[in-house]
Amino acid sequence: MQTILETSCVKRQKLCMIYKSEGGNFTKRVVRIQTYDDRLINAWCFKSQAYRRFLRKNILAIEPVNTYG
C-alpha cells in the first residue's frame, strides 16, 4: 500500500478504495490523497465531495483508478 500512496501523492492520481467504517459499513470510494502517515490518510473524497480522514487499518483494498477505459 505504501507504494500506491506515494505514487498517488506525487502524480495526484485518483485511487479507488474499499473502506470499512468504524460502524462496520463498507463503502467504495474514489479519493485523491493529500497527505498520509502510518495511521491516517487525508484525502479528497469524490463520493462525499469533501476532504476526509481515513484510518489506514480500515482500508480493505486500494488501487489506481483506470482512466483508460
Automatic annotation (TrEMBL):
Record flagged with keyword DNA-binding: yes
Organism of origin: Geomicrobium sediminis
Superkingdom to which the source organism belongs: Bacteria
Keywords: DNA-binding
Name the record gives this protein: DNA-binding transcriptional regulator YafY
Gene Ontology molecular-function annotations: DNA binding
